[in-house]
């Protein structure tokens, strides 16, 4: 990983910055570093060790390290900080969250509450607040369920909250047009961002995403320029 990072350079030989989201979703238990597999102190040391090894031993200085537990239903700073490794090891504060395709009003409210929390915490610590992974939960997608208002609900909720609207970015999981095994063993295509295909045109999910795309709060690649030439002060 260090060799890859240290050789990741642009055409002018400058290191390319990367947001490295290590040991994510640690408040769940589906990864070996998760809640039932480690104590909070063990997790903190593992995170700190990883950063120290790459940064101090291997000289990797183009990584921004993201901390991203799962969303909390009891949205408090104390819950977020239980496994937080500390300001010296983290650059980006986020959370991962997946919700149902149907009857999802409570989940969207929770997304906004968690986003507002990370914005407040990041602002107080000089960090970058994000929604580090978000989408409709995989079993619903595999079952063919969808919400053709999903992106509109998401952006509307974020815009109504003075803190939540200040997240730097949100990340969806990757599309898998080749499919993944569904409940019956047959491959089911996964689309977290609706592609321009007949099914998504017909069910309204593509139009839903286009509303999100055109919203004045969102910025996509074509809307952003000059970010690497802005004068900045690195602390």
Per-chain topology:
Elements: H1 2-6, E1 18-21, H2 40-57, E2 63-67, H3 77-81, E3 92-93, E4 96-99, H4 105-125, E5 128-129, E6 131-136, H5 138-142, H6 150-160, E7 170-172, E8 176-181, E9 187-190, H7 198-203, H8 205-214
Parallel strand pairs: 1-2, 2-3, 3-5, 4-6, 6-7
Antiparallel strand pairs: 8-9
Helix pairs in contact: 4-6, 6-8
What does the model show?
The chain has 235 residues and is an alpha/beta fold. The chain has a single domain, classed as Alpha-Beta Barrel (TIM Barrel), CATH 3.20.20.80. Helices cover 34% and strands 15% of the residues. It contains eight helices and nine strands. The protein has helices spanning 2-6, 40-57, 77-81, 105-125, 138-142, 150-160, 198-203, 205-214; strands spanning 18-21, 63-67, 92-93, 96-99, 128-129, 131-136, 170-172, 176-181, 187-190. The two termini are 25 Å apart. The model has no long low-confidence stretch (mean pLDDT 93).
The average pLDDT value, as a whole number, equals 93
Counting helices, strands and paired strands, the structural category is alpha/beta
Order of helices and strands: HEHEHEEHEEHHEEEHH
- Taking the alpha carbons of the first and last residues, their distance comes to 25 Å
The CATH superfamily appears as: Glycosidases
CATH architecture: Alpha-Beta Barrel
Radius of gyration: 19 Å
Q: How many helical elements? A: 8
Supply the CATH class: Alpha Beta
Residue share in β-strands: 15-25%
The biggest beta sheet, please? 4 strands, parallel
- Uncertain stretches: none
* Order of adjacent strands in the largest pleated sheet: 1-2-3-5
Give the helix proportion (percent range).
25-40%
């Amino acid at each position: 990983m260090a060799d890859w990072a240290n050789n990741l350079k642009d055409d002018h030989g400058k290191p390319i910055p990367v947001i490295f989201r290590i040991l994510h979703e640690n408040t769940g238990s589906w990864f070996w570093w998760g809640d039932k597999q480690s104590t909070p102190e063990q997790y903190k040391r593992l995170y700190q060790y990883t950063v120290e090894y790459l940064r101090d031993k291997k000289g990797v200085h183009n990584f921004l390290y993201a901390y991203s537990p799962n969303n909390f239903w009891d949205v408090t700073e104390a819950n977020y900080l239980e496994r937080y490794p500390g300001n010296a090891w983290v650059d980006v504060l986020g959370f991962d969250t997946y919700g149902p395709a149907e009857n999802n009003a409570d989940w969207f409210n929770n997304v906004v509450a968690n986003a507002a929390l990370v914005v407040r915490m990041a602002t107080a610590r000089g960090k970058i607040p994000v929604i580090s992974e978000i989408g409709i939960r995989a079993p619903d997608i595999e079952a063919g369920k969808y919400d053709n208002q999903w992106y509109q609900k998401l952006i509307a909720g974020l815009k109504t909250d003075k803190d939540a609207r200040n997240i730097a970015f949100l990340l969806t999981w990757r599309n898998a047009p080749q499919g993944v095994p569904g409940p019956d063993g047959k491959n089911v295509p996964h689309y977290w961002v609706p592609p321009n295909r007949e099914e998504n045109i017909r069910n309204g999910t593509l139009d839903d995403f286009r509303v999100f795309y055109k919203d004045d709060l969102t910025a996509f690649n074509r809307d952003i320029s000059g970010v690497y030439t802005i004068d900045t002060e690195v602390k």
